[in-house]
């Protein structure tokens, strides 16, 4: 990093040395072969559930124009394995760990969050409220403002660590859910999880995903996410983490101008294993070219 | 795993559906083993979007060869890459085949593009002084590849095709048991490319107490173990566990894979 540039951003009381972090589910310890984890603003492991769960039917990924659809189904080894294996694999790095939590009920969110909050090396929690609420007929928690508020407020009671609510884009008004998460006590908002999508093989007439529908990600979704970041920034004072379709430094900067304080990179790493650090380098070059000293100047700097 | 921009030395059509690519591997600085693969970028555009896993067909001192089936838009795009261009490839990825040093005779059971994976085993076997017996199954004679290549490495090749009505599982079973195993002690079985032939190989290996390995093919997302797209079930005692084909595989002990 150029010494005269300050790339620090804050999410609650968590200070990140730069705004770039991996998106949960698109990152694992294996990537250390290709990537310097110490350069990342934060480390975000794959979502963890309380108990082991097997994941969805295959095929779990398919390609689309400018992106992909996945239905992995949060294949997880459970929170005990996460604490004994996954966290130690990341603890050796300087970058703060933000644990992503997925659960089937509010009680389970609270339970897993309380367990993770006891770990000193976990510096923040990202609540994946985009997963199906099994007690609510499979509707995602984050599709309902009242449930979102209740879920966040209950988790708030068991931890003082920063809570980031990962919102679903599959709603009529993401602003209503963002307000509810803020009222519940969230410290940050992730905008957003993948978009519900579907693709069909016209030769076989079968869905290209074993689970029929899945989550759409990749560069094709970026304009929709930029719109949502802009909309959420109008109604919430919380820091926003933009997530969806970032492939380059300029994509990340676009999200920051729309209102994001930080940016997650997911699918881009599938195409280029060094995407995260390449994007950081491109942001540094942009700051240099545009004589930007503090990256925070960019946040919400859109000119309408 | 590293990302390389390898110089393409040639990329030619070798039959109606198959292409053969040779790339310069002098800058790889890594040993490549049979069964390992590279995650290859098919084009510089966002469609085809994901990389494609291509197993190594032939491993030479300064080059690596791929034999690929042109199946969809990704592999179609690959045919446009010309000699002199660069190939964006990540790898080598995964666990390859393990060839026992004490083996004397091995059996290869390949269907279609599975030969691209097993040819590298025949090449490694030849270098160790091991004789290969190879069942090559395909739709038609036109789809059969690498026969000369296998024979150059001392393999005895048995051809079965759908067109000639010889590729059914019962006939392949008869060839393996009567034409090969009745006169030769097979020390290991290696298979790739067909679920039916994999099941047969598993059953014969079990019956004749021969160790074996299988290279699995799966839809992959990242190819780095991060996304959990390409999982399969492996038997461990009385239980099964889900493993990633890209990192724990693609080669697994034949007796442990739960065939779907």
UniProtKB/TrEMBL annotation, chain A:
The residues the record assigns to binding FMN are 24, 46-47, 128, 166, 218, 244-245, 266-267
Q: Which cofactor does it need?
A: FMN
Q: What is its EC number?
A: 1.3.-.-
Please list the residue ranges annotated as the Dihydroorotate dehydrogenase catalytic domain: 7-287
Which UniProt keyword terms apply here? Cytoplasm, Flavoprotein, FMN, NAD, Oxidoreductase, Pyrimidine biosynthesis
Its taxonomic path starts at:
Bacteria, Bacillati, Bacillota, Bacilli, Bacillales
**Name of the featured protein:** Dihydroorotate dehydrogenase
Q: Which PANTHER family match?
A: DIHYDROOROTATE DEHYDROGENASE (FUMARATE), DIHYDROOROTATE DEHYDROGENASE (QUINONE), MITOCHONDRIAL-RELATED
What GO molecular function annotations does the UniProt record carry, in alphabetical order? dihydroorotate dehydrogenase (NAD+) activity
Quaternary assembly: Heterotetramer of 2 PyrK and 2 PyrD type B subunits.
* Record-linked HAMAP family: DHO_dh_type1 (MF_00224)
Substrates-to-products reaction catalysed: (S)-dihydroorotate + NAD(+) = orotate + NADH + H(+); (S)-dihydroorotate + A = orotate + AH2
Q: Which family does it belong to?
A: Belongs to the dihydroorotate dehydrogenase family. Type 1 subfamily.
| InterPro entries in alphabetical order | Aldolase_TIM, DHO_dehydrogenase, DHOD_1B, Dihydroorotate_DH_1, Dihydroorotate_DH_1_2, Dihydroorotate_DH_cat, Dihydroorotate_DH_CS, Dihydroorotate_DH_I
Could you tell me what the cofactor note in this record states?
Answer: Binds 1 FMN per subunit.
The pathway it acts in is: Pyrimidine metabolism; UMP biosynthesis via de novo pathway; orotate from (S)-dihydroorotate (NAD(+) route): step 1/1
Lineage: superkingdom = Bacteria
Active-site positions on this chain: 131 (nucleophile)
The protein's location, in the record's own words, is: Cytoplasm
Instruction: State the protein's purpose.
Output: Catalyzes the conversion of dihydroorotate to orotate with NAD(+) as electron acceptor.
Main localization of the protein described in the UniProt heading:
cytoplasm
Residue positions binding substrate: 46, 70-74, 128, 193-194
From TrEMBL, chain B:
Domain called FAD-binding FR-type: residue spans: 1-99
Residue stretches in coiled coil: none
The cross-references to Pfam families, in alphabetical order and at most eight, read: DHODB_Fe-S_bind (PF10418)
Q: Which domain of life is it from?
A: Bacteria
User: InterPro entries from the entry?
Assistant: Cyt_c3_hydrogenase_gsu, Dihydroorotate_DH_ele_sf, Dihydroorotate_DH_Fe-S-bd, FAD-bd_FR_type, FNR_nucleotide-bd, PyrK_electron_transfer, Riboflavin_synthase-like_b-brl
Q: Which Gene3D superfamilies match?
A: Dihydroorotate dehydrogenase, electron transfer subunit, Nucleotide-binding domain of ferredoxin-NADP reductase (FNR) module, Translation factors
Keyword list, A-Z: 2Fe-2S, Electron transport, FAD, Flavoprotein, Iron, Iron-sulfur, Metal-binding, Transport
What PROSITE patterns does the record tag this protein with? FAD_FR (PS51384)
Name the coenzymes or cofactors required: [2Fe-2S] cluster
What family is reported? Belongs to the PyrK family.
Could you tell me which PANTHER family the record lists for this protein?
A: DIHYDROOROTATE DEHYDROGENASE B (NAD(+)), ELECTRON TRANSFER SUBUNIT (PTHR43513), DIHYDROOROTATE DEHYDROGENASE B (NAD(+)), ELECTRON TRANSFER SUBUNIT-RELATED (PTHR43513:SF3)
This one is known as Dihydroorotate dehydrogenase electron transfer subunit
